[in-house]
Specification:
Layout (H helix, E strand, L loop, with lengths): L6 E5 L3 H13 L3 E5 L2 H5 L9 E5 L7 H10 L6 E5 L4 H9 L4 E4 L6 H14 L4
Parallel strand pairs: 1-2, 1-3, 3-4, 4-5
């Protein structure tokens, strides 16, 4: 049976949000690296080992879409969950075009984020035929 890729990277400029996301994912047995911005996430030595990335839409210096472009330039195509306080149809369309797997509106009040992460990680562990 394949092993789940258990590393999730988070880039969010709000420390309380990073800590909360890290806490709920660690309860599920997921290893989490948190970063306060895109540049720090890009510098993570274990970026290639990640199974999923969670990004805040708007961050100082480098927003989520700019970070996604940097990842694509490095040929890194990991599943991404985008968090935003203002989810619009336009944002969903832009996210879909950028390859984002899931767009969630903050505040996240249920298990949607954890369920999304676990679904992504489980799908990666399934053998391909």
């Amino acid at each position: 049976m394949p092993t789940l890729p258990r590393l999730v990277l988070i880039a969010h400029d709000d420390e309380a949000m990073r800590n909360a996301l890290q806490f709920v994912l660690r309860l599920e047995g997921v290893e989490v690296h948190t970063h306060d911005g895109g540049a720090e996430l890009l510098a993570d030595a274990e970026l290639a080992r990640a199974g999923c990335i969670i990004l805040n839409h708007r961050m100082p210096l480098m927003g989520a879409f700019e970070l996604l472009n940097c990842l694509r330039e490095r040929d890194i195509r990991l599943p991404v969950i985008l968090l935003s306080g203002d989810v619009t149809t336009d944002l969903r369309m832009r996210a879909k075009a950028a390859g984002v797997v899931l767009v969630l509106e903050k505040p996240i009040l249920d298990n949607t984020l954890v369920d999304g992460v676990m679904t992504i990680l489980s799908a990666q562990a399934e053998p391909t035929t």
